[in-house]
Amino acid sequence: MENSRQKKIYLKKTTEISLLEKKSEFSITNIFPLRHINLMDREIYFNRVYENQKKGKIELRKMLDEVRKITFSKDELINWFYKIKDDSVNEVEHLMIRHEATMFAETKDIDFERIGFLTGIYEEAEKFLSIMVAIEPIDEKSPHYSILDELEEIDEKFIESDDIPGYYNVQRHSKIKLRKFQIKDLKSDWNDELDRNKDSEYVSEDFGNITHLMSRYHTEFTWEIYRIKPRGDIKSYLDFHYNSFKKDKVIFVNHIEFRILPQLENFTRTNHKLYEQLIYEWLNEKKEKLNNEEKEFLLTSVISVCTTFLDNIFEYKKSKSENKYNIILRDFLKHRINNRQWTIKDQSMGGTTDPIIESNTSGIAFRDLIIENELGNHISAIECLRIKSIPKDETSDKIIKEHLVKIFRNEPIGISPLFIITYCETKNFEDTWEKYLNYIVQIDFGKYQHLDLEKNIGFNDFANLKIAKMKHYRSLKNIEVYHLFINMNP
Fold first, then answer.
1. Which domain of life is it from (predicted)?
2. 100, 168, 267, 309: which has the fewest Cβ within 10 Å?
């Protein structure tokens, strides 16, 4: 258990790592302190740093041969690589401090040759770390593809409109004092760099690509998170930029969770768990769409429409289509929540399903019901299914597990509560309910593992409607899922 915990602490995310990508001949690795980042231009790099970088890489391989004689685990080797990188950065920092301490110091007095050597060591350590990290299992926190598509679409809009800071509140005018939590404007430095190097022979075809400026803003924003002290102010920092963001706030929240947080791991390293927990607290605060009173209203509304459905159950049973049951529930719930200006929508995978096909699949649902608040934000989701029996184990289950996991898979934001409505078509309702409860606690929900099942939640006074609540763990947050069981043969 201890080893797996260490992996989470020390290993980086693998999203951006390609072991096949060829590094550009003209790329620069710069381990300078941020305040000195512009001192090493391309001419200095290729005349004084580049050749010594090669020497540093050779030295790292020699050191690695010796280290392998005394390391006994992968984690120990990973720790050593990170220490080597830290030591390289720290020595460059000391070189620059000595340079600053010299009163009329000129750029030529900086020991760029030694910096090149240290950069080579740093690069080679990073290469080995990349190889080790890339063979780790796929990260279970990977976002739903739709989130990445949306973020990339927003990136393109920022680029097209020449609004490259995009996600962040940036100091737009250099004469106006930088406000607390603002990040500095990088555009003037970017333009100066382009102007200095436009005629240089050491530039790649991608030189001047504006997406690199956007990437620098991401790095600057992440770097500021790492520097903030006390760390509790990180939430205020995120709030400052969240409140300034002009588009849908959910986009900014997803940007922080799925792009900034993984990047932050490279800065925080062994302290990453501390930062991760703090940022997830902030994320969960932003994802919490409903207060307690609204959650109670939503629960009682769903229960109410289920009991209304039961009042006319014999009439509805004439239809063999589960989708028609769902439409009836949807229309009831639409009227129930309308006074709050909430809406309920279908998410269909291709229209109404043929009842014959539906009968053969024994209840594989083709519709989800999505509930939105007055701002158009998703606040809950309902998954419906029909069952005619409870499987003995997961291996023979084609229906229940698929639906119970699907509600998480189709709902990437992490909202709570969620609802599972089951149309029970067995002859023995009470017995089936008990079997259902015993079965769902045995299901392996993968990364959405259940924490506990609450059978008595104060709403079980209905003869043909059963209710239970199951809590699941998701991204440092508990998600509540209510299971409502409707007796179709009362």
1. Bacteria
2. 100
